[in-house]
């Protein structure tokens, strides 16, 4: 019977450490890793992924902002030349641009982190949202796994 040494549950990621294995459950998979196959574990911030998502987010945001500014210009122009139709069209453009901008702005990307399992065959990352989790919980769990790995490799290596 395996002895459960520690558990971590964050977002849609659940990890259980026993004296011989590491059990990882995500929304899409359930995986088990023998401690003898793991060389190390750590937490990494997925900065490159965040930067590319942020660049894409900023590009998507420009269209509605342009609609809003164009609409405001039409409203001002309509008021100046006293043409009601131009003012109404400008107001509609501005409203569409404003609400589209608000919709896109509410989906701003966040910096994701991952528990990285390092093995001889390569690394496996298991993502979680660092903002919704206490950093100490993840750090403490990773520290327990590292200590267990060190003891395991020392006794069986």
Hey, roughly how much beta strand do the residues contain? 25-35%
Radius of gyration: 26 Å
| Series of H and E elements | EEEEEHHEEH
Largest sheet: 4 strands, antiparallel
| Shape assignment | rod-shaped
Task: List low-confidence stretches.
Answer: none
- Order the strands across the largest sheet as they lie in space: 1-2-3-4
Q: What percentage of residues falls in helices of 4 or more residues? A: 40-55%
What is the structural class? alpha+beta
Topology, number of strands? 7
Quick check: average pLDDT?
86
Alpha-carbon distance between the two ends? 22 Å
Q: Number of helical segments?
A: 3
Structure description:
It is a single chain. With 157 residues, this protein is α+β, with helices and mostly antiparallel strands. Helices cover 50% and strands 30% of the residues. It has helices spanning 47-81, 84-105, 135-156; strands at 4-10, 13-18, 21-25, 30-34, 38-45, 112-119, 122-129. The protein has a four-stranded antiparallel beta sheet with strand order 1-2-3-4, with helices on one face. Strand 6 and strand 7 (122-129) form a beta hairpin. The longest helix has 35 residues, at 47-81. The protein is rod-shaped, with a radius of gyration of 26 Å. It starts with a strand and ends with a helix.
